Amino acid sequence: MKLWGGRFEKKTDGLVDDFHSSITFDQRLYQQDISGSIAHATMLGRQGIIPQEDAEKIVAGLKEIMADVAAGKVQFELDAEDIHMNVEKLLIERIGDAGKRLHTGRSRNDQVALDCRMYVKDSAKEAAGFMRELCETLLSIASAHLETIMPGYTHLQRAQPVTLGHHMMAYFQMFTRDMQRMKEVYAHADVMPLGSGALAGTTYPLDREYAAQLLGFSAISANSLDGVSDRDFVCDYIYAASVCMMHLSRFCEELILWNTHEFRFVEMDDGYATGSSIMPQKKNPDVAELIRGKTGRVYGDLQGLLTTLKGLPLAYNKDMQEDKEALFDARDTLVKSLVVFNAMLASCTFRTENMERGAAGGFTNATDAADYLVKHGMPFRDAHAVIGRLVLHCVKENKAILDLSLEELKAFSDIFEEDVFEACSMQACVNLRDVPGGPAPARVKASIDAGAAWLAAFAI
How many Å separate Cα 369 from the centre of its chain? Predict the structure, then answer.
């Protein structure tokens, strides 16, 4: 008979047991669930709500169950529905009637809310740790390529020269924002709902603050209805995971492009590429493509949960059971993607000669040629028009700007002098962009140093 079955005259239909049960996926909450129960039992004993002797038996029994589950010695039962009922059933079987006192002053509603908050806190901290490792890889690559010139793009057209170090630091900024988002997720989840009961609290003199202290929470929920029905923190985690996956996907898209024969900016390590079953020459960036593809499923996790929650009246509804599979899938996908992406990126070989050759083509120094005229007195809009005509001429002649002689340049403006060749070189185009946030090597080095200091200070 089920632990809640006193009001019922017949057994739950087998189809309902299978449909209703969540133990197949929520068993991964066993550590959070048992830890929460240990704190609850400890508090009950301290408050004199249950005999201290029973509280000690419960705590000892729960610790034993925790160890047995971790060792793979426990087989959870579908009939017991979820991780909460499974643990309680095991406890009663092992310690007898004392185990029946565990659920005093508690509902599965505040119990599962507690478990989920603890899981999200753990997951946010975990994700931030993997993001930190990726950021460290980016700092390493950026440091090694402060002066490696490459084309920067807008509209996927060569635009202006930058450096590979500068490009890597752009992604560093993205992932540090992801770390900060996970820190905020942790803070939002760091509110203990235990004591909210089913929806209206309890008549027992619970010490919620003490239980929160035992479990490492910084605050307790302020409203019992909200305490059991709030899943904003789950949405927050999946949103943060979605944004991070978007950043990974953008990075993957660039690596996929750079890996093509048309770009040849990067060579994927053999350990992170695959071949074709029919075309022997192929070396496919499947890891990057799969991360790009998995981004969509995390978006789906977020959209699915938001849709589930949007029409729910207060307080708890069974629909909310659907939060866990979305949360677990988002967590698993994010962690696996971060780990494999970091390893793939660290193993890449950057073809710096092709990058520098790419920067020299496509008129990436056209803006600098216009700036040259401006610095010699010409209004920018006039300079823009002059260089536009100059580029058109070069396109027709299949030449780069600096392939022209000074005499040819003067045909477009008498302002041009011999120093234009130095002013519009790739090195000058990068080095003269010596503004905060710019690609000049000294600025990128300062950004790397600031980034390293930020990582060292970051903590959840």
Answer: 41
Catalytic option among 155, 261, 277, 405: 155
Report pLDDT digits (tens) over 186-207: 999 999 999 999 999 999 999 9
Q: What is the reported pTM?
A: 0.92
* Homologous superfamily of 5-104: Fumarase/aspartase (N-terminal domain) (1.10.275.10)
Active site residue 276: yes
Q: What is the DSSP letter of 320?
A: G
Q: Which amino acid, 426?
A: M
Q: For 292-322, how does the pLDDT look when each residue is reduced to its tens digit (9 = 90+)? A: 999 999 999 999 999 999 999 999 999 999 9
For residue 275, give the nearest of 259, 289, 286, 266 by alpha carbon: 286
**Spatial distance between the Cα atoms of 447 and 172, rounded to a whole number of angstroms:** 10
CATH architecture label of 116-147+162-206+223-352: Up-down Bundle (1.20)
Decide: helix, strand or coil at residue 274.
strand
Q: Which of 103, 123, 261, 276 is catalytic?
A: 276
- Show me where the domains of the chain are located: 5-104, 116-147+162-206+223-352, 358-457
User: How would you label 139-178 residue by residue, b for 16+ Cβ within 10 Å and e otherwise?
Assistant: bebbbebbbbbbbbbeeeebbbbbbbbbbbbbbbebbbeb
CATH number of 358-457: 1.10.40.30
Q: Give the 3-state secondary structure of residue 145.
A: coil
